[in-house]
Amino acid sequence: MLRLGFAVMLVAAAGYAAPPKSDSDALQGKWKGQDSGNDGSGSASLVVTGAKLEFRGADTNEWYKATFTLQEDKTPKQLIAVVTESAAPQYVGKTAKAIYQLKEGKLTISAKEPGNPDVPTAFEGPDARTIVFKREKP
Length: 138
Prior knowledge:
Layout: H1 2-15, H2 23-27, E1 29-35, E2 43-49, E3 52-56, E4 63-71, E5 77-86, E6 95-103, E7 106-111, E8 129-135
Antiparallel strand pairs: 1-2, 1-8, 2-3, 3-4, 4-5, 5-6, 6-7, 7-8
């Protein structure tokens, strides 16, 4: 009887284990990246706070602030951002569509230009910019 009670407690405890972190939780914080777009070089930064992000490219005149949602059920996973502020005013209010991957402590994002209705189909695909980020140490 004691064994049965112990087994029931183990099964019950397993059922109350913390659910896995969502990608939204995993994205929170500061990231530094290497931009493979344009000429294939340059650093980039990304700060994610809640459902907002701030991206800064290697060029100091390239920056975007946006709100975003994730589509974790898609393959590859998608990030949909609406630009709220930018050094390039023509992008404000536009939607940027991207695919992303979180793997081994790295965040890879491949995105189309804001306003382009297409979602990249693969990392390093045509007409998409790919950046590999690593989380900044606190």
